[in-house]
Amino acid sequence: MAYHYALGGETYRFEDLKTLLGKASAARSGDQLAGLAAETDAQRIAARYALADLPLTTFLTTALIPYEHDDVTRLIVDTHDGAAFAPLASMTVGEFRNWLLADTTTTAVLTAAASGITPEMAAAVSKIMRNQDLMAVSRKVRVITRFRNTIGLEGCLATRLQPNHPTDDLKGIAASTLDGLLRGMGDAVIGINPATDSVANGFDLLNMLDHARQRYDIPTQTCVLTHVTNTLEIMNKGGAVDLVFQSIAGTQKANEGFGVSLAILQEAYEAALSLKRGTLGQNVMYFETGQGAALSANAHHGVDQQTVEARAYAVARAYNPLLVNTVVGFIGPEYLYDGKQIIRAGLEDHFCAKLLGVPMGCDACYTNHAEADQDDMDNLMVLLAAAGITFLIGVPGADDIMLNYQSLSFHDLLSLRSLLGLKPAPEFALWLEQMGLYDTQTQHMLDRNPGQTLLGQMVRPT
Amino acid sequence: MTDHTPTRTPAASHPDVWQELRHLTRARIGLPRAGNALRTSDVLDFQAAHAKARDAVHTPLDVNAMQAALGPVPSLVVHSQAADRATYLRRPDLGRRLAPECAQTLQQGPWDVVFVAADGLSSFATQQSAIPLFMATKQLLPDWHIAPLVIATQGRVALGDDIATCLKANMVVVMIGERPGLSVADSLGVYLTYAPYVGCPDSARNCISNIHPHGLVVLAAAAKLAWLMQQARTLKLTGIGLKDAAPDMALSPSTQISLPKDHDA
């Protein structure tokens, strides 16, 4: 069915629902590359007017990607909670925005609605929301998860410590881990992207991380971000798997490009649950996503990149994850060209995920061929933290020497916690205090070097 | 400092243990604090490295200098359908196709192989290493019928397929600047494809990456490449099948299932 809107003396026609969503999106290079973006600014706003008038029920009756062809569509449709949707059933997309922002739409109301909201509804409303709207609504949502600590509490900002090394050198990784812990990082997870994606290598890295965690009794979880099939094998061999990691996307074909299916994710989820390694809770999954993944696999089915991205959160929430993050600027300028596009996408991803009840974090990052720099990351981290982001990623000096891109430094995250009065996860903050690294009174990380703490024994230079 | 390997003064009160730990990793570990933030020298070191990486992306390949360096060795110059760097960065599809006017200038073979030196995402890498690598590899393949070196601007890896098809070459070696990082902005990657055609999948290629003075040096890369080329000619294939047949060499098929990223430099 086609949609029409008259604006400024011209009538704009939009062929179908996915065309309308694409044209209504804030400008970004990935949609331009795919030929889905608005051709003029006026066309974009006409699409937004038309979208605002659309009943939310449209998204329950119109599949963007056919049910028969795509298991993500089937997951979304089959798990939709009609009772939770009932209070929203009479709303248009425009009314939905107003409702989300209303003072009477509290944290409890949003929590109750989450299972009634589809990714497409979240994506649609985000397209008619300004950055501050995305932040204001995200801020009201609380998603709390637990494994060995509590992630997502009001007033807390967790961090993933990312100690990557180009040859997976154990001592090199330990040195970066030590650096991060001394800066109060790692309450979300200590997570390595391995240079070599193999079972044997993953097993050794996990063993090293688990040994350090147990030796110092660190109330956190560790992860090697290897392919889910490797993690399954590592679990079968008795490896120290806290969390199962996988990159996921919003269509069946894109997930196939990652070598995963919903069945494999389910198998890994059940295997990790059976290990019962969590002490406070059993959220055992960790997912990464990012706009452009489906398009880069030629698996987007003509759907704009932000809407496809939101569909990945439906996949994530099916497995009760501890952590999910968008790797927002990693994919390159052909999908998100510059700082403005990266910042907007980061806020959209966080909003859509939180609205669906997903514990969303972000790798605020960019590559050297994008028009972005550390000032853009400063802006993005502050906006995301103000919006209540669950966790952010930190690497030593913001420079990932294995993946060759820039994220946030440990220092950036310390500054951010200080600037907005945010604390680490409570169990982790207590541990930091016991280790003599953190002053609970002032909520301040003390400036300690390895020689001044027991942790210094974690790694020896030779 | 353009190199971030730090040589800083320890705080007076306690010895800088980090100095020793830095032998374990090139990561920017143990950077001191100014309040919560990084100290001035580290902020500027980072910006200097970022500037170098950006310049590697945006500085045009000096084609004249490359031809001068080749001396009497024949070469051809082509460009992709991406008219400029801004288009190149936004439209990877155009960087993979040869501009129509360039197709006519290519001298048809048959050739055993054509070498392509493309700017990719780091003209610094191509400027520095492509011609030495071409000359060194050529020496190791005395009986091969090798096409003139093709110097390509605004090029991506798959541009080589188009070039090889026009030239009627059995194999293509694309030497291309890799996406620059902060620690290495001049790393060259080499992609070998047997029987290339337009639309050829990345899984049909073999890649040798990390070629730069502090990584894999040119002569070692040339030896590896020549070995691969000889095997490819014997086996009549490249990609996964060749990788599996290779002894313990640091090479990979050019597609890996991993986080989505622009592996196609």
Automatic annotation (TrEMBL), chain A:
GO terms for cellular component: cytosol; ethanolamine ammonia-lyase complex; ethanolamine degradation polyhedral organelle. Pathway: Amine and polyamine degradation; ethanolamine degradation. It catalyses: ethanolamine = acetaldehyde + NH4(+). It is found in: Bacterial microcompartment. Binds between the large and small subunits. Catalyzes the deamination of various vicinal amino-alcohols to oxo compounds. Allows this organism to utilize ethanolamine as the sole source of nitrogen and carbon in the presence of vitamin B12. HAMAP family: EutB. This is Ethanolamine ammonia-lyase large subunit.
From TrEMBL, chain B:
Pathway: Amine and polyamine degradation; ethanolamine degradation. It is found in: Bacterial microcompartment. GO terms for cellular component: ethanolamine ammonia-lyase complex; ethanolamine degradation polyhedral organelle. InterPro entries: EutC, EutC_C, EutC_N. The keyword Transcription does not apply. Adenosylcob(III)alamin binds at V157, E178, C207. It catalyses: ethanolamine = acetaldehyde + NH4(+). Its EC number is 4.3.1.7. GO terms for biological process: amino acid metabolic process; ethanolamine catabolic process. It holds the Pfam family EutC. Keywords: Bacterial microcompartment, Cobalamin, Cobalt, Lyase. Its cofactor is adenosylcob(III)alamin. Gene3D superfamilies: Ethanolamine ammonia-lyase light chain (EutC), Ethanolamine ammonia-lyase light chain (EutC), N-terminal domain. Binds between the large and small subunits. GO terms for molecular function: cobalamin binding; ethanolamine ammonia-lyase activity. Belongs to the EutC family. Catalyzes the deamination of various vicinal amino-alcohols to oxo compounds. Allows this organism to utilize ethanolamine as the sole source of nitrogen and carbon in the presence of external vitamin B12. The basic unit is a heterodimer which dimerizes to form tetramers. The heterotetramers trimerize; 6 large subunits form a core ring with 6 small subunits projecting outwards. PANTHER family: ETHANOLAMINE AMMONIA-LYASE LIGHT CHAIN (PTHR39330), ETHANOLAMINE AMMONIA-LYASE SMALL SUBUNIT (PTHR39330:SF1). This is Ethanolamine ammonia-lyase small subunit. The gene is eutC.
